[in-house]
Automatic annotation (TrEMBL):
Gene: cooS
InterPro entries (alphabetical): CO_DH_a-bundle, CODH, HCP/CODH, Prismane-like_a/b-sand, Prismane-like_sf
Lineage: Bacteria, Bacillati, Bacillota, Clostridia, Eubacteriales
Organism: Ruminococcus gauvreauii
Transmembrane regions: none
Pfam families tied to this protein: Prismane
Record protein name field: Carbon monoxide dehydrogenase
Length: 630
């Protein structure tokens, strides 16, 4: 009899309450308190009908004032806000991708960064028409990186990776004029279109939102993912643990937070250095524990098995344990609150990127040329800080789950190879997975992505949706903070197969996988696009015909809106649990939830009732099966 038991949301909350008690003792602020202070939210903002893009306003739309001073109506205002939201997300993901291109460009046999997956580099070079014969691997890395960097500003043509999509998808993008050109151009065009006195036509604004989203998903994010694999290794299944209990009281605890693996990889490297471990012992600790928060955690968990302390809304909790010597951040999703919070404890809040500078932090500028010495300085600073702990404030919740992570597309193809007893596919295609789907053993798949949002009881939507899907034989592929929600609850433990329907349970047993597959960080949603493209090509179907949907039940960031736009534009219906500030315009809401289906064969569903949301997803998957006659 299995002893497997999921960690419940009530258990998370009890642990958090205990940490907040410590916080109260030292006068710490928390997101829970700030949410109260910010409630109720501005209704104009919530509906997307506040315009402050010029200084004649701000203008707010009401029944008495249906147009702003320039004459723009609610539909134009909501549309422009939506496009700006998307552009912010596309810029952010893509700039992360650009940083990784630069890191690849700096790679060298004797440098801080090396090429760990040369085969993947060669495959990409060939795909891009770059000569590989007779070239040293680093010469090739530099050439590929430079070609990638050109994708950001090239004057002509569309993104190189679009060719990975099935021809039918490429044709749609071409016909609808949403095939993304240079990445920076799509971001700049979006800001141009949404400037005062430019577009106010919802169709035009949504079309550009889709195009900017595609420049992220099939451009910047995809390069971020692919080149991270080249540099740090393509993920393979690896065991790890998740939740705050991964922090170790006797050790120096370093928490990495953010997104760019160039930093976290180096920190892990130096935390493992015998010289550093010996120094930690000299300073009274038993060793060094690195754990992670948010997507940088996903990156190092997938490649090194580094444990995951938590997701987005747990970032303050790691400091509240009183046992965090340093929280080291790079970019994105970092609460500025970590500065003042750290001051209430002994924790060092170390910022490292010129892109994310914050008050009350110690700034150690990190760059690829000096990465080794920067990382060493950070690890040493954390060790030196161990002695400053206040033992009376230390409390690490005894709460963690086992997880198997690291399911890149390559890994999924490999583990599912041979699952079907009728055919063992030797060619590394998705055919075994397709066979599971067509036979009905697996009914379909959900790509679960996104953040936490205080508008939803943290993690509940992720976990409840996943539980119901797997019970209905729908496999989950998760990334970002959704993946961490699953891991913390125990859904990435292989024993979670016991929560599945009979078909999915059998697949989990045969392939030795958990029912929720960890596919990485938020840029790694590009991996999901590649998997969908391969499934379509191998089945001869269009992506929009596959019984596959996307879901972001607790999303909060601009990046998530960009992601939603590229997932939908790829032909995958996308289900949101939080409204993207468009309810103030019937035209915009109708376009996004219906009208765009005529363009890209998929659309959004927004439903804040999570039980209804999951039922709608399952219904959609079953509709697609029925249409295929399977
Ligand atoms: S970290 S964008 S809270 S998934 Fe990628 Fe998590 Fe969302 Fe940030």
């Amino acid at each position: 009899m299995s002893e497997f038991k999921l960690t419940t949301v009530e258990e998370f909350e009890a642990a958090t309450d205990r940490l907040l008690e410590t916080g109260a003792k030292v006068g710490a602020d928390s997101w829970q308190l700030r949410v109260k202070n910010q409630t109720p939210h501005c209704k104009f903002g919530e509906q997307g009908i506040c315009c402050r893009i010029c200084s004649m306003g701000p203008c707010r739309i009401t029944p008495k004032a249906p147009r702003g001073i320039c004459g723009c109506d609610a539909h134009g205002i909501v549309g422009r806000n939506y496009l700006k939201f998307t552009a912010g997300g596309a810029a952010t993901h893509s700039d992360h991708g650009r940083e990784i291109c630069h890191t690849l460009y700096e790679s060298a046999a004797d440098g801080n960064y090396k090429v760990k997956d040369p085969d993947k580099l060669i495959r990409i070079a060939k795909e891009w028409g770059i000569e590989t014969e007779g070239k040293d691997i680093y010469e090739l890395a530099h050439e590929v990186a430079e070609t990638g960097l050109m994708e950001y500003g090239k004057p002509f043509g569309t993104q190189r990776f679009l060719k990975r999509a099935p021809q039918t998808t490429q044709d749609i993008w071409e016909k609808e004029e949403i095939a993304p050109r240079a990445i920076d151009r799509e971001v700049a065009t979006s800001l141009h279109m949404s400037h005062m006195g430019c577009s106010s036509l919802p169709e035009a604004l949504v079309r550009q939102s889709l195009r900017a989203g595609l420049s992220d998903g099939w451009g910047g994010s995809m390069m971020g993912t692919e080149f991270s694999d080249v540099l740090f290794g393509t993920p393979k299944p690896i065991d790890t643990e998740a939740n705050l209990g991964v922090m170790v009281e006797e050790n120096v605890n370093i928490v990495v937070h953010g997104h760019d693996p160039s930093l976290s990889e180096m920190i892990c490297e130096y935390a493992d250095d015998p010289e550093m471990i010996a120094y930690a012992k000299e300073m009274g600790a038993k060793g060094i524990t690195v754990s992670g928060v948010c997507c940088t955690s996903n990156e190092v968990a997938m490649r090194r098995g580094i444990p995951m302390a938590g997701n987005f809304l747990q970032q303050e909790n790691v400091v509240l344990t009183g046992a965090c010597e340093a929280i080291v951040v790079d970019v994105q999703c970092i609460f500025p609150a970590l500065g003042p919070l750290s001051k209430c404890f002994h924790t060092k809040f170390i910022t490292t990127s010129p892109i994310a500078q914050m008050p009350d932090s110690e700034f150690i500028r990190f760059n690829s040329k000096t990465a080794g010495e920067n990382a060493k300085a950070i690890v040493k600073a954390a060790i030196d800080n161990f002695k400053n702990r206040k033992p009376e404030l230390v409390h690490i919740p005894d709460m963690k789950q086992k997880a198997t992570v690291g399911y890149s597309v390559e890994a999924i193809v490999k583990v599912l190879d041979g699952v079907t007893n009728t055919q063992v596919d030797e060619t590394g295609t998705t055919k075994p997975l397709l066979e599971c789907i067509t036979s009905g053993v697996i009914r379909g798949a959900v790509a679960m992505v996104g953040c936490n949002n205080p508008k939803i009881r943290p993690d509940t939507a992720h976990i409840e949706l996943m539980k119901k899907c797997i019970a209905n034989d729908i496999i989950i592929i998760a990334s970002g903070c959704s993946a961490q929600a699953a891991a913390k609850a125990g859904l990435m433990d292989k024993s979670a197969k016991d929560l599945c329907g009979a078909g999915l349970k059998r697949v989990c047993e045969l392939a030795d996988i958990p029912p929720v597959l960890h596919m990485g960080s938020c840029v790694d949603i590009s991996r999901m696009m590649i998997l969908a493209a391969e499934l379509a090509k191998d089945s001869g179907l269009k992506i929009s015909q596959l019984p596959v949907v996307g879901c972001a039940p607790e999303w909060m960031s601009e990046k998530a809106v960009s992601i939603g736009n590229y997932v939908v534009s790829t032909g995958i219906d996308t289900f949101l649990g939080v409204d993207p500030y468009v309810s103030g315009s019937s035209e915009m809401a109708e376009l996004l939830t219906g009208g765009i289906r005529d363009w890209v064969e998929a659309a959004y569903t927004v439903e804040t009732d999570i039980e209804k949301l999951v039922d709608l997803m399952i219904e959609r998957i079953e509709e697609k099966r029925e249409a295929l006659g399977i």
